[in-house]
C-alpha cells in the first residue's frame, strides 16, 4: 500500500489518508457577516467527497478587525458558530476530518478599522499604519482566540490550526523586524514567541481537540528570522502540546531578499528540518501537485501529511486521481471508479 493512503493521527483524530487540503481563503462571505454559506458547504463537501483526508477550513477571523477583508469567514459569535456547524456536518458525511484555521490579520487587515500590530509599521504603501497593541489589546486578542476555539470545538471541528504564518498578526509578533516592542512581547526570541505560546497554552486548557500551528518557517529576509529559529520554535511548541506543525514560509514582508525559487516542493526543505526535531506530525505544503511527489515526500521522511492547495482548487477529485496513480483504485468511491 502507498504511504499517501495509510491513515495517520493528529492527537486522537484518525485521518484516513495523508492528503490535506490547506486553508485557502475564498472571500465569499456576504453582507460582512462572517458566515459560511451554501458556497462554503458545497466547496468543502466537494473536496471531502473527492477523497481528501483532512480539510483545513480557510483563515477564519476571531474578531471583526482580525479579518483580511470583509468577505472573510468569522467565528466571533454564536450565529457564526451555528453556520460552521452546518458546514462541518455536511463535510464529515463524506469522510474527511474537519479542521479550522483560526486567524487574525493584524496589520495586513484591509478592513476599515485601524488594524492592530505589535508596532506602528505598515506592511507596504497599500496598507494602513497600524495601532500599536497595548497590553489590554493583547489580552483581548488572546481571549478572542480562546473563545473562537471553544466555538470551533462546539461547531464540531475535530482539529484547530492556529495561523501563525504568512505575516498575519501572530507572525508579526514572531518577526524581528516587524515587532519592535520593548516590553515582554518583543525583542528576544522568548518574548517574540510569547504571544503564540500563550495562545496555544490557554487554548489547550479551554478545549479538548488537538491544536496545531501553521508557521512561516523562513521570513525570506536577511534581517529577520530564519529556519533555525523556526526549528527551535517548533520544538518548543511541541513541548507545550502542539498536535502538529504545518510548514509554510514567507508573507512577512513586502520586500524580500531571500525568497526561494518557486519550483515544485519548494518548501520541503523547511518541513524536513522541522520534522527532524519533532515527533508530532508535520504537514508539508507548496507546489506539490502529483501523487508521486507526495508519496516521495512521505517516504523521504519529510512529513506526515501532504497539503495540496491550488491542486485541490483545480481538481476537487484530486485524491481519487492519486488513488488511481498509486494503484489504489479500490479506494475510489464505487460509482466514480468507472471514470478512472
Ligand atoms: C486562493 C488562496 C487562498 C489562500 N488562503 C490561505 C489561508 O486562508 N490561510 C493560509 O494559511 N494560507 C492560505 N493560502 C496558502 C495555501 O494554504 C498554500 O500554502 C499555498 O497555496 C501553497 O500551496 P500550493 O502550492 O499547494 O497551492 C492561500 C492560497 C491560495 C491560492
Automatic annotation (TrEMBL):
Cofactor(s) essential for the protein: FMN
Annotated InterPro entries: Aldolase_TIM (IPR013785), OxRdtase_FMN_N (IPR001155), YqjM-like (IPR044152)
Pfam families per UniProt: Oxidored_FMN
Coiled-coil stretches: none
The keyword NADP belongs to this UniProt entry's keyword annotation: yes
Signal sequence range: none
SUPFAM superfamilies per UniProt: FMN-linked oxidoreductases (SSF51395)
Span of domain NADH:flavin oxidoreductase/NADH oxidase N-terminal: 3-325
Alphabetically ordered keywords of this record: Flavoprotein, FMN, NADP, Oxidoreductase
Gene Ontology MF annotations: FMN binding; NADP binding; NADPH dehydrogenase activity
Superkingdom of the source species: Bacteria
PANTHER family: NADPH DEHYDROGENASE C23G7.10C-RELATED
Protein's name in the database: NADH:flavin oxidoreductase/NADH oxidase
Organism (species): Campylobacter californiensis
Lineage start: Bacteria, Pseudomonadati, Campylobacterota, Epsilonproteobacteria, Campylobacterales
